[in-house]
Amino acid sequence: MFDCSNVIRIIIQKSLLIILIIAMSSSWDQEEEQATAKLQEVFSKDKRFTYRGFISSGSHGNTHRIRFIDPTTGNTSEFLIKVSFNDIEAQQQLIYEKETLARLRGGLHVVRAVNLDTIPQEPLGQYNFPYEWVALEWLPNGTVDTFIKKANLHGVRRLPNRLLWKLLLCLIRACCALAWPRGRRNDVLETELPINGVPAGPLSHEDMHLNNAIFGDFDIGNEHGISPVLKLIDFGLTMEEDEIEDARLEERKGSQPPNQTQDSSQNPHDPNHTPVQYRGIIKNLRGVAEIMFHLVSVDPLLEPIEYHKVTASSDSLSSEEFKPRVVSFQCLGKTINTMAIRLFPKAPGMPLPYPELDQSMREILAMCLASSDNLWNVPTLQDLSQWVQTAAFERKADFYKDPNEDDDSIRALCMKILHDAPP
User: Fold this and answer.
1) Does the reported pTM lie above 0.90?
2) Residue 79 CB neighbour total at 10 angstroms
3) Of 48, 230, 302, 409, which shows the fewest CB atoms inside 10 Å?
4) HSE-CB of 140 using CA atoms within 13 angstroms
């Protein structure tokens, strides 16, 4: 006889789970409404400020756009207020993000915290705003995710190589900001480069994706004339990598590309260093490569890594897990295994994906996605800073023999994607 008791129990369990999810969602919605209403109320009490609108929401809080008019000079500025919900985890996460932003202060390619204490009687303090908050610079040109989706609406099927190099350079600079935090106490910004003689730190962003990389303005510094500056945001999950117990990493020997001279004391992949000193760099570079793949493919959904199911057996036990597919390629006189399988032909004799992509860019992204048994092939930030900067500045339109690669065309393309309504 069919026993329906198990079926009924499963149905009840799933129903309870759905009810719990709905209740939690309702609670988040209610708190979001309360926080937004309170923020609007506080800023409405001060005529110097205007609440410009709700920007985005997450599981731990939301962000809002605020305008400030200096009554003395008449100058207008805008900033974001990021508010945490009133639960301990959300508050702690935002407090930690503020501490991390203070460590990173001075870097050009990470979002900058704004100090409202310089404004006399700023309303959040004046009226005891009851939520944990942080003020951040307003970055006007949206996320990489939005950029790609707008490019799709404009019929853009590939981005120029010189634009890709500029954006990759921004992300490498941001990785250097994490590896060598500036910790400035003033508002001076600098282009983030490796600091000679100073070992890289272990900061890992831990949440690097298309919506946590945001475009700022054009003409910021000397590297953003034809494309806007690209910055990392959202450092609430950033962590210092703990010491890891991985004998393979400890035993690996560092490798060095041909014709590259480098002080091994600065090499975060050198086996004489503890893993904690480069584990964060490897994770950050993987995030960079994944963001760049979406820009190369002009596809916000297609991932560079493809997984397959593997069944492992041990004695009488068996288990299934998903592992990334790996492909080998030749670079710098050696064979490298990479997870960037979608950057290479699926089989010998098949065409190369994204044939217009600069081969050097393809190889760099593939090395940043080196497989777990090939991590010593992940380039150092010292090498990447040199390689990518050289390509970004020295490979001009005539290198690619493509009129769409010249400065005016690239800037016009960026402006169209960012600001023009799609046809």
Assistant:
1) no
2) 18
3) 302
4) 10
CB–CB of 82/61 below 8 Å?
A: yes
Q: Among 55-59, 149-153, 275-279, which range has the highest average pLDDT?
A: 149-153
**Phi, psi (degrees; rounded to nearest 5) at 92:** -65, -40
Q: Which residues pair with 66 in a beta bridge?
A: 51, 79
Type of residue found at 353: P
And the tokens for 209?
Answer: 């994706």
Instruction: Tell me the Cα Rg of the chain.
Output: 24
User: What backbone phi and psi angles, to 5 degrees, belong to 310?
Assistant: -125, 130
**What angle, 0 to 180 degrees and rounded to 10, lies between the N-to-C axes of helices 276-297 and 144-153?**
10
Cα–Cα distance for residue pair 357/102, rounded to 1 Å: 38
> How many other CB atoms sit within 10 Å of the CB of residue 17?
10
Q: Which helix (H) or strand (E) holds 161?
A: helix 161-179
Task: Return the structure tokens found at 351.
Answer: 């065409």
83's tokens? 């508010």
Whole-number Cα distances in Å, 415 to 44, 196, 222: 34, 37, 18
376: phi then psi, degrees, rounded to nearest 5:
-70, -10
Q: Please report, as a single letter, which amino acid is at residue 347.
A: A
Distance CA 423, CA 412 (A): 16
411 three-class SS: helix
Question: How far, in whole angstroms, is CA 135 from its chain's centroid?
Answer: 20
Are β-strands 334-338 and 327-331 bridged in parallel, bridged antiparallel, or unpaired? antiparallel
